[in-house]
Amino acid sequence: MVTVKRRGNSSTDRKNNMSKIFEDFQSEGGFPQEFMVGVGISMYQNSGCGGAKTNWSKFAETRGCCGLGGCKVHCGESPDDCSPDFWNNYEDDIRLVKSLGSNCFRFSFEWGRLEPERGMWDESAFERYSDILDCLERHGIQPCATLHHFVHPWWFESIGGFDEVENLELFVGYCKKVFERFGGRIRLWLTINEVAVVPYTGYIYGNHPPGKPGNFHKAGILYRNLLIAHAMVYKALKAMPHGKHAKI
């Protein structure tokens, strides 16, 4: 008979083990200086859309409950009523980011805020993003920008959105506008957040806009178009000033 001594498994033991691992790691040089530790948000999830009509605001208002996923709007009729409001509290939030020891912050540009109507750009929204970047720079935090995080203007959705390949140039135009303004201040860029999630949740599971579950054919078309859009944006931004050094 062999007796096996169990390792300690108390919270104190685990804490001591992790401390020893961290000490060993630090003694061996730790993380390289350029290693980034960050946190992230998306603007709609943290600030709503500022009254602009988007595919998500329309979906939340008309559905109340977002399909099979069961996510509900618990306070008010719109996410604008109950978000943490990073848009107006960004200085406090970025101070908290810094206090965590983070040196990178991922956020999203909200197309609906910047171009609430087709061809009509809201300069005040661009200025607010500039203020946010100023604040990140003051705290020594590198920005990482997402150009599309699930949300786009309702005017774009109403003409077919990403389902229609001929609409992709409109998305490219928006991305170029943002990069023209901020390409010199942001090195890290993401084109489309979770590109495979968008068609799955929209057309297979149905708990995101447009909320039409079980439509695998439409999901495939949307997925293809999103990949095409990514390639188009990548090529367009790389050809612009600051594009050569941008990580997209």
Automatic annotation (TrEMBL):
Q: Which InterPro entries match?
A: GH, Glyco_hydro_1
UniProt superkingdom: Eukaryota
Q: Name one Pfam family in it.
A: Glyco_hydro_1
Q: Which UniProt keywords apply?
A: Glycosidase, Hydrolase
Q: Which GO terms describe its biological process?
A: carbohydrate metabolic process
MF term (GO), any:
beta-glucosidase activity
The entry sums up its family as follows: Belongs to the glycosyl hydrolase 1 family.
The cross-references to PANTHER family, in alphabetical order and at most eight, read: GLYCOSYL HYDROLASE, LP05116P
User: What name does the UniProt record give this protein?
Assistant: Glycoside hydrolase
Q: Which organism is it from?
A: Tetraselmis sp. GSL018
